[in-house]
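Schema walk-through. Below, the input block comes first and the output block second. Nothing else is stored per chain. Lengths vary across the set, and this one has 930 residues.
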Amino acid sequence: MSKALVGASELIGAVGMGVAAFLDPALVASPWFDKIMASLAISGISMEAGAIANALTANRGVNITTRQAASYRQIIYGIQRVGGIQIYRSTTGGHHDQFNYVIVIATHECFAIENLYLDGRQVYWDTTSAGNTTQNGYNFGGNADGNSHQGPNGVQYNFGTLVYCEARYGEQLPGDVIGGLTANDPTWAASSGKSPFVGGCTYVYLKVEYDSSMFPSEPEVRFTVHGKPVVDPRVGTTPTYSANAALIINDVLTDPEWGLGDDSVNQDQLIAAANICDEQVALAAGGTESRYSCHWHYDTGTAVGDIISTLMESMGGKISRIGGQWFIYPAAYYGPSASFNSDHLIDSVDWTTKGFRDISNRVRGKYTAPNFPFNVAGNLYDSNGWYNGQIQDNFPFAFQPTSYPDYAADTLHGYANDEYLTEDGGVVLPLQKDFIQVLSIAQAQRLAKIALLRNRMQMGSGTLKMSLAAFMLQPMDTFNMTCSQMGWTDKLLEVNSFQFATDQTDAGPLLSITLGVNETDPTIYDWSVAEELTVYDVPAAPSLQAPYTPAPPTDMELISSAATALLQPDGSVAPRIQVNWTTPLDILVTQIQVQYQPVGAANWTDAGSASVNSNFYFISGVVSGQQYDVRIRSIRGNGATSVWVELDGFTAGLVLSVQTQDGVGKGSLVGEAYPDGTAAIECNPFTALVGQLSLPVFPGGAVTISGLTQQTLYYVYYIDPTYVGGNVTPIATTNQSDFLGKLGYFLIDSIVTPFAGSGGGGGGTGTSGGKYQPTTFSDLGTRTTTTPAAAYDGNLSSYATVSGSSTSTFAVGKTSNTTAIGSGAWSGFNSVVAAADMTLTVICTTILRQSATSPSGSVSINASLGGSTTSPLANSAGNLTTYTLTVPTGTNLSGISVFVNAVPGVGGASSSVPSASSSVQAQVAEIYIQ
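--- output ---
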């Protein structure tokens, strides 16, 4: 990376990483998973232009030609009216009346120079003269044509033979020295092996002869330039002129000399972004223009972050770094890519709404007007009647910052009235948005509308902690969210940040995705020709007088639930009342006062005040089951207060926020197995203790859960959102996510159901119950198997581990590999001949881990049925899985062996990666024949 992002900005994005490994529960359960997660951070943030840098107008380039001993170089994109830097000047001629200038316009190749202005008067060329060239369709240079032309304010002028200019466009080769210059000033000629060809720069030689009437002083020099060619991946790899905003941003990111020097821009997204920028939008004056064009110049002293920030303003865009690549997003509606609901949440929603100080009801600012009188619609560059000296060309006004019409939801823009202003109590709340890189007044208005509607229609934002189902999202994606607790049904949300995290729980690491989101709406990006105004369309000035009485807060709401209760250090739970409201529409309000009283009380109790920037407040010290009256009001800084807003007769509740992973009824479960092949769990009475509270559970007697599977680990829980205990309904599950992290869900205990064969109870290694297990184990590999007896202890929660590991170290011309292979054999089944077909069962979890450059390795499970043929059992990485193989009639079980092999992968030599590793495991929970 040739340059760092400096200034006020730092663009951060998501660190790419494969998804599969993090969706593997077996990996989560592994001992070393915590160490990995301790150093893992997957995040992504979509940054708006304003968030990238504050100094958007710093070092904007050179507007008039100046002379400096040492100067920053200039960079130009799109069409610009600019000056340059004089790097050489001299006076020659017999009367020393010829002024020679070497003026560098840009530090890169330019597509073309369109024209030259001297004191605001355009130079017209003799196309037959020496030095006159046509570059990409634009004729420039040579001698002035000697004709009279009409200049600023209608004054006639004729440069006669006083002006000569010759250009180079940055593509010149060594030795290509402008001959017109050396003819007038030989000191510029090549000498001592040096060639002043100003390589890589666009520059001109300008000669102006002294004339007291035409040039009473040294003239002001400016050029109209078509700037730096950029690559358009839609048509090839050869740079060409383009004002496409996305392509220009891509050029800054990838330019190794003057930009970021990072070529990791996602090409598919770049093409999509370029297509959006090139979409044609109808103009009020007729015709169309590109949706987002960009025209800007600056100097090389500008920080890269400031450059990208300013360029992105031209398309209202955002940028993100995801998976090691840059993603460029112009302002547009991106349809939802997924739908989620409350089941995908693993915590309550953290949600805030903008306060009055954060909203605006109109957008105003400046754009760059390329001509004067100001164009009335669109860009109209080259079609304005005042352009090119046809009537007059008021040069001092060309390419100058000019106010575009304010955008508001008012009658001028097709609304019934100034809707947002009315909502805001008549207080004007302007948002300043300058688009110095935009030449089109219509484009500036489109961007202003997007800024206003984003401000008003993206009022809510927050954080969602979600399950791994949200891993498919990335910044700038939109999705639909249904959440009854928030009153949402298919609410459209936009992702602005993404973070992958793990929380350590008693049951092991809990993976989650934390999304920063804001609400959005597709109408933000709609545009109609009827909304386009000219600079002369001015709305009626709204009243700036604030009302004497402050506006009160609205939409008051009271909540007392598990989410609001406070768990004290001693374990007791204190109920609280949460008061919610919508920020008052009064910019002068600073505080929201909260008061409460028990129903029927004579006096109000003051609960304190909240900042107007908050939308909620907690009332503590209330009693569970007691009814309360609550009221709130607005307070201005000068002490003026609004009317009270009141809700009466609200009951404070005691709903505990308990998310248990340890059973509240340890030892109260009894497992049973029946001859019909099913199992059951008997749930006996117990007392649940939380803090200082105790509640009887199952006081009416034991409750049995039947119809379960034998030899299976079950978690038994119940749901008690009001925490009253009693004869609750127990629920058996094999999935902890059914109860972990859910309010009002209580785990009783876990238990493995026993086994009972048909015709009687029991089981084990003998014939009783018809279930047979191995009794011996042999290590066959170069890595020791741990707890091999756990594979035949009748307990699914314990397991034997067969593992393999390898490490590869790479160096130039040399590879070093260290490999240990796990292999084990279980045998010693009873000497019993199968009277009918039986089933060999292996219950196992396979875990594969590897670095990015190493193959994953493999786990194999095989069974020898007493002969020379070994039969493989299909296996794959994943959860605890049951593998089976038919044992044919007549097979003596004592001749059966089960082999489990864990072979790690070995990486190949790599000059770019110093090392690679691979680790594989087979966690064998049970082996038996039945």
